[in-house]
Amino acid sequence: MNEAAVLEVGREALWVILKAAGPIMLSGLGIGLLIALFQALTTIQEMTLTFVPKIIVIFGAIIFFMPWMMQTVIEFTRQLFDRMVALG
Q: Which of 6, 42, 68, 85 is at 20 to 30 A from 15, Cα to Cα?
């Protein structure tokens, strides 16, 4: 396995990580922005107001996107195993 193949596998692994974590992080970012806007408009500065909705939304996003995330990771793993079989 040469350097180019190792770099390609690393690049694909990073891309899979971004694809799998992206929806969860974007949902957390979206609800965080909405809560910050709400807090700025109402001048309510309660610390627990930020954590509970974020946890609920992130948990819901994990449940909603889990099949797609698992399919992405499984597809990458199969490609990686196929490359290992081709090497040896």
A: 85
**Token pair in block for residue 48:** 């627990």
First to last CA, the chain: 10
Return the amino acid letter for 26: L
Please state, in angstroms and rounded to a whole number, the distance separating the CA atoms of residues 78 and 60: 28
pTM: 0.80
- Contact between 9 and 80 under an 8 Å Cβ cutoff? The reply is yes
Q: Which residue has the tokens 């195993």?
A: 81
The helix-helix angle for 48-87 and 3-42 (nearest 10°) equals: 170
pLDDT(44) > 80 = yes
